[in-house]
Automatic annotation (TrEMBL):
InterPro entries, per the entry: AH/BAR_dom_sf, BAR_dom
Pfam families in the cross-refs: BAR
Stretches that traverse the bilayer: none
Cross-referenced CDD domains: BAR_Endophilin_B
BAR domain segment(s): 24-270
Record protein name field: Endophilin-B1 isoform X3
Biased composition (Low complexity): 283-298
Source organism of the structure: Bombus terrestris (Buff-tailed bumblebee)
Gene Ontology CC: one annotated term: cytoplasm
Region (Disordered) location: 281-300
């Protein structure tokens, strides 16, 4: 019990000393020990890595899961180590409605049959999309989140410890300067200035040793942050492969749908002008490159239009 009380008093005294030192530095009445240039550079790069990784991760999650409510729900499921709910995508919901509508209209008619085919395609696209989201989470999002919650959190903690060690060191330096300024004077406490100086220098050596040791620990961790970018690059390549595979599958699915619909497409109505020329109202892309005037076709649906011109005002 006594040991706990002594430790508590010691920690409280150290915290108060750090607050005083930080206040004096803010007011410009005390010197501040600066980190070496290399360590400062590593710290700046680590902060930039952390900032950009957080931003990329946040935007990636928003792209893959646009609904913020679903993102919050997934976050809680991860924290309690439970499986995420298997939600249908918006495309799958659209596909279900199209299929139900097609069955209601009747699959024997052209529109009902087309709705069924397009609905089935939308469901397939939705499944492809869900697989892409799952692959992206495994190969890119989870490694980035693990980096932020593991490595970067450790770096932040050790950097905070280094800052405390730095404040302790500067506080000891101030006590040494104060003890030296009192040499040749009589101490108010009855302790000789030489004893106070010796004690302050001993505390300074201990504080300097602890600061140097913590600086080396932080330096190793910061160098590890830079090397972690190689792993992030590999994860990025895997994400690009997953995205390319996703778009290729979507493209192939849409091409299959286009071929299916092309075989059941109804001929477009034709327009006859002055009983002479026939113009297709909705020409196909291949026909639009040729002349828009075609000869009349047998058994074609057309509309006859006769134009009368009043030349009296010409």
């Amino acid at each position: 019990m006594d040991l706990n009380v002594k430790k508590l008093v010691k920690d409280a005294g150290a915290a108060l000393s750090r607050v005083v030192q930080l206040t004096e530095e803010t007011l410009g009445t005390s010197e501040k020990t600066e980190l070496d240039a290399h360590l400062e550079h590593l710290a700046d790069r680590a902060n930039a890595t952390k900032t950009w990784t957080e931003k990329i991760l946040r935007n990636m999650e928003a792209v893959l899961t646009p609904n913020p409510g679903n993102r919050i729900e997934d976050f809680f499921y991860e924290k309690i180590d439970k499986k995420k709910p298997n939600r249908l995508s918006n495309l799958e919901y659209v596909g279900m409605d199209m299929i139900e509508a097609g069955n209601d209209f009747g699959p024997g008619i052209a529109y009902g049959s087309a709705l069924n085919k397009v609905g089935q395609c939308q469901q397939k696209l939705g499944q492809i999309q869900r697989n892409f989201i799952k692959d992206s989470a495994n190969c890119y999002i989870q490694p980035l989140r693990k980096f932020l919650e593991g490595e970067m959190k450790t770096v932040t903690k050790e950097m905070s410890i280094l800052e405390n060690k730095r404040l302790d060191l500067d506080s000891c330096k101030n006590r040494v300067r104060k003890a030296r300024s009192m040499l040749g004077q009589q101490s108010e406490t009855g302790v000789s200035p030489e004893v106070l100086l010796d004690q302050a220098e001993r505390e300074l050596r201990i504080a300097q040793s602890e600061f140097d040791r913590q600086a080396e620990i932080v330096k190793l961790l910061l160098e590890g942050v830079q090397s972690s970018q190689a792993g992030h690059l590999r994860c990025l390549h895997e994400f690009v492969e997953a995205q390319a595979r996703y778009y290729a599958q979507c493209h192939a699915t849409m091409q299959d749908l286009q071929r299916e619909l092309a075989g059941t497409r109804q001929p477009s109505p034709l327009l006859r002008v002055n009983s002479e020329d026939v113009i297709e109202l909705t020409p196909s892309p291949s026909q639009s490159q040729n002349s828009s005037i075609n000869p009349p076709l047998s058994d074609s649906t057309y509309v006859t239009a006769t134009f009368e011109t009043d030349t009296s005002n010409v």
